[in-house]
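Task 17 of the worksheet. Students: predict the tertiary structure of the chain below and write it out as structure tokens. Keep your answer in the requested format; marks are given for formatting as well as content.
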Amino acid sequence: MSFLARDVAVVGVGYSQVARAGDHDIHQLTLDASRRAIRDAGLEPNDVDAIINYQFGGGDAPTCATTQRLLGIENVAVYNDIMGSGPSGLAAALDATMAIASGACETALVYRCITRAAGYAGAVRETPTALGGPAELTIPYGFGGGLIQTMGMRKRRRVAVLGGSYEDYGHIAVTARKWAALNERAALRSPLTMDDYMNSRPIAEPLVVLDCDYPVNGCCAAVLTTAERARDLAQAPVVIDSMAYSTGRYSDWLYNDDFLYGGMIACGKLLWERSSLRPDDVDTAQLYDGFTHIAISWIEALGLCGIGEFHDWVDDGRRIAPGGSMPLNTSGGQLAEGRLHGLAFLCEAALQLQGRCGARQVPDARAALVANAAGPQSGAMVLRTA
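Model answer:
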């Protein structure tokens, strides 16, 4: 029994086509992924009584009401279009977990659809011609008031304050390609060397292009239900042992007194306080890598190693690579599978714990960590086999 009022399990996973370029209709992408997730669970659309998605708005994903109509579901008891705030795509699964555990619904479909054309990943968008308030001072530095630039500063800060080297970041990027080579769905499957990483194009020095996730068009979806109901469905249930959110002391991306972690450390502390497992029990970690800095910070914040210990812990990349003791982002993550904006980490963790990952399967995987976003929008889960 978890800390939740009712145990909740992931029982189905679905992906649309994941494409590097081209025009893709968000409705078709979402319909494809959702149908596949529902079918994967051994259910029919009308078995679903909750739909939750995370989106930025502005045309990057259909609303829950639209998805209900696309699937032909007669009625839903819980629905939520989570926009902007929240720990990326995992926010939908966190929300669904609480709704199911409370008894507000029985079976939830969660999804994240994203396209390059929406302008939040790898596209150029015009901003308003007039701005007021703090935005007039921050927006000249780019999306989010300088998210890219602050990631460069965070990278520099880590090495200056905690030690290590920029090669530490390279191990995240190089290992992502090693896993992606085993994943037919991944956008970037060609090998990457440390020299490739160190010589890649600067974006906001010392941040380089290979520190950044790769924009794609696609949708992923998952189905969650009660652990009791899950026992009678098509796939082996993956139980949510623990979950946590955190904002940290100052819930702001740019102006935070903990520049490297934000809410991550508090999120990790709460996660383990609620869990029946410990960091040493984890067989694989699926951690947000929108930027390489975020994955490193999650590894430390979640207690896989101590604060500032990543440089030695990663063992020149061997620990997190295929065959290592802590396989990281086994799909290739957002750096190589493609930026599906967080929810894909939950899907990959479920597939690993169900033993369905083929060439990239982690042997005897029984427990997984999933974490999304960073700073004031930190969220994480511990998953285990039933």
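Marker's comment: The chain has one domain: 8-120+213-385. DSSP finds 13 helices and eleven strands in the chain.
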